Amino acid sequence: MALLCLVLAEFKGFLHRNRWKEFFMKTRKTSSNNRTTYKYTYFVPNESGGYDEKTLEIKPGENGVTVADIKMLHSMDDSEVYYNNKNLRPNRTAEEKAEIKAWKEKCVKRFEERHGYKPNKDDVDYAANKHFLPNYNSSIDFDADGELEVDKSHLAEALSTTDDYGFITNDYGFEWSEEMEHAFSTLTDKQRQVIRLMFIEGYTQSEIASMLGISSAGVKKHLDKALEKLRKTR
C-alpha cells in the first residue's frame, strides 16, 4: 500500500480507537459515483489564530496509490459510517418505525412520479434519518458552553425534504432538489462553510468560531442569514 494511504488509514484508526469524534466523524457514505478517488478534509492553523480548511485528494496512479488503496479507504469510511450512525441514533419504537416507513414510501413515490425512476435507497435512508432526528424537542438548544443554538432539525428538514422530495447530487454528497440547489447557490462562501461544519461535520458553534477565527456571535449571524434564505425556498 502506498505510504500516503497507509498513514491516513492509521490516523483514521487512531481517531476511531480513541473516540475523537469531535475531530473526525462521518455519518454518510461517499456516493458510488464519487469513489474513483478519495478526498480527505482537514483543518490547519492559520496566522490569525483560526483554522483553514484543506482537502487532500488521493488518486490512483499517483505516488504509488492503487485502485485497491482507494477502495480500502472508502471501505473504512463505510464501516465508520455504520457504527457512527448506530451509536448516534437510539433504537426506534415500533410506532416510529412505522411512521418512518410510511414517510419513505411517500418520498419514493413522489420522486418516481416526477423523475420516472426510483431514488437511491441510501439517499432516502439518509433523508429519513435527518427528517426524524431524535432528541430535538424544543426550538432552541444549548451547547456544552451554554451558547444558544438553533434547533438543527429545522435545517435538517430543509436539507433533506422538499415539496416534491426530488434530489440531485451536489459537492457535499447530499441529494437536493433543484430549488434547494438554487437556494444554496445564493449563500455566501462563509454561510455555506458554517452550514457544512455544523450540520454535516457536526462541530459546535464555539468550535466553528475557533476554526474560522470569528466570534460565536459571528457564527450565529452567518447561520441565521443562511437559514432565512433556505426557508424562503420552501
From TrEMBL:
Q: What is any one GO biological process for this UniProt entry?
A: DNA-templated transcription initiation
Q: Is Cytoplasm included in the keywords of this UniProt record?
A: no
Family annotation (CDD domains): Sigma70_r4
State one molecular function term (GO). Answer: DNA binding
Q: Which UniProt keywords apply?
A: DNA-binding, Sigma factor, Transcription, Transcription regulation
Q: Which residues form the RNA polymerase sigma-70 region domain?
A: 183-232
* A Pfam short name: Sigma70_r4
Domain of life from the UniProt record = Bacteria
What PANTHER family does UniProt report for this protein, alphabetically? RNA POLYMERASE ECF-TYPE SIGMA FACTO, RNA POLYMERASE SIGMA FACTOR HI_1459-RELATED
Protein's name in the database: Sigma-70, region 4
Organism encoding this protein: Gardnerella pickettii JCP7719
